[in-house]
Amino acid sequence: MSASRTALVASAFALCTGACNNPAFYDGAQRLVVRAADIEAAGAEDSTTGNPTIGAYKQSEYWLDFREPSDADLAELQPPGSTPSEQTPWIRRDDVTASIPWTLTNDSDAPLTAWVLLDGATEFFDYDPISTYGAAGGAEEDEIQYPSLAGFTPRQLGPGEVVRGEFREDDLREAMYDLDAITRFCAGPLAVLNHRHEADPIGTDVVPDDAVIAAAVMLRITLGASGPATLEYDVRLRESEEKIFDSARDARRYEVMPEPYALPGAAALGGGTSGGDTGADAQCEGGGSTG
């Protein structure tokens, strides 16, 4: 865990010890700002920071903080040699109830298009479709922009306009299901991410009925914009579970190293950073079907 990440999660949870019945608000990891220079750089021919679907973008990661399971607990949930789909998460969707209110500002005197996007990681996999655009190495017209877990609808802002919105608790709950479905259970991203699974379960037949859904241990917020813009956000948590780290009780935090999820056809991401057989490519043979 990096020093900056440690400081973030430590400060986020220092205000709440034990079980908290009421929701609490915490400042986001950072203010996200897209400047005119970012727009120009993203449009350059050799740009590695642009995304043709959302323009210039800035990202921030908000890591949640949980207590470490015992070796016996983890061995029972995730036996050595098992694949992620055969394992049970230590941090489960029912352990995390969160929402993210945000404020988006057009910093220019011209209209612009902006996106406020939500992605993230479980203890198993990290889904980041924005910064990995083009990883498949094909011509731009052959690339597919896979949707984010939430927020992929563009917003039109007038000069100087301020817009407020929120990823609600039900949005986060659906996002956690989708994140686990497409990564750990290899559901097709294009099918799953374009539907609310409770209303339309297309693509989710690969998820067992009795599956324990993993929670997001990290929330990634992306601001994409066609012009200068600023995004500020908070994280609102209902902290009611004993798994949230409590410095007065717990000796260690749960250190996780989620594998980057390999988008279908994105061979450059392969099996993640470890080179082992539990990477996304090995698990889903290139990310599963595109549904």
Secondary structure layout plus pairing:
Blueprint: H1 3-14, E1 23-27, E2 32-34, H2 36-42, E3 50-51, E4 55-63, H3 71-77, E5 97-106, E6 112-121, E7 125-127, E8 155-157, E9 162-167, H4 169-183, H5 189-192, E10 218-225, E11 229-238, E12 259-260, H6 280-284
Parallel strand pairs: 7-12
Antiparallel strand pairs: 1-11, 2-11, 3-4, 4-10, 5-9, 5-11, 6-7, 6-8, 6-10
Portion in beta strands: 15-25%
- From the spread of the alpha carbons, the general shape counts as globular
Task: Sketch the topology as an H/E string, one letter per element.
Answer: HEEHEEHEEEEEHHEEEH
* Helix content class: 10-25%
**Largest sheet geometry:** 7 strands, mixed
Give me the secondary-structure category. Answer: alpha+beta
Instruction: Count the beta strands.
Output: 12
Query: How many domains?
Result: 1
Rg to the nearest angstrom?
Answer: 19 Å
Number of DSSP helical runs:
6
- Kindly report how far apart the N and C termini lie: 35 Å
* Low-pLDDT residue spans: 1-20, 266-282, 286-291
Kindly report the average pLDDT value: 80
